[in-house]
């Protein structure tokens, strides 16, 4: 009988251990990055030869950060075209201060995986921006110091994933921004002309109220000081004058 009870206890312990092992969450193995195709590897080599820097986003993420803005030589449309074959793996592209034109931007319209694009101080115009409307994953676009106008920005209004659009020192107007916002309510325009105006008005009003309050307090303080001086002067009168006043 004792042996039977002991056997039951052992079986229960084994069963419990098995259940615990099954309930224990399995540790997720880090996902291996997908291998680049031969065409993509060849394109990376071409980008580097053209003066571009190429970095992998993370160890388990084979998407690429590509930058031409620090290249030694001239970077124009020909060099930018080397990224065309990387449409499925490119994450970020920095063309700041390069000679890229609207023709070069036409080479980018197939970069479906592109999330961030720097075009500051380049030679692009509204015509080039029309090609970027096809970038379905674009979240960040910097157009600082370009000749872009309201029409160019409006061509991007349908970009559903766009989060930040920098238009500082461009020809984009307040009216153009307002029109853009009627179509795209998620992207943040920087600077937001209407919002900055509103903030300036609020700050000016706050400053005016603070100045008015300061003047009011100063006038009150001066009145109190004048009264104190008058009282002190009155107390300093000669006894004879005080007697005369009493009469």
Structural account:
The protein has 247 residues and is an alpha/beta fold. The chain has 2 domains: 38-191, Ribonuclease Inhibitor (Leucine-rich repeat, LRR (right-handed beta-alpha superhelix)); 198-246. 47% of the residues lie in helices and 12% in strands. It is built from 9 helices and 7 strands. The protein has a 7-stranded mixed β-sheet. Helix 7 (174-183) links the parallel strand 6 (164-166) and strand 7 (188-190). The termini are far apart. The model is unreliable at 18-24 (pLDDT under 50).
Estimated share of beta-strand residues? 5-15%
Number of distinct helices? 9
Overall, the morphology is elongated
Could you give the count of β-strands? 7
Q: Which residues form runs of ≥5 with pLDDT under 50?
A: 18-24
Distance between the termini: 128 Å
Second-tier CATH architecture of the largest domain? Alpha-Beta Horseshoe
Biggest pleated sheet: 7 strands, mixed
CATH fold group of the largest domain: Leucine-rich repeat, LRR (right-handed beta-alpha superhelix)
Percent helix range:
40-55%
Which series of helices and strands comes N to C?
HHEEHEHEHEHEHEHH
Q: What's the CATH class of the largest domain, please?
A: Alpha Beta
* Number of individual domains: 2
Radius of gyration: 36 Å
Structural class: alpha/beta
Give the integer mean of the pLDDT values.
Answer: 86
Strand order of the largest sheet: 1-2-3-4-5-6-7
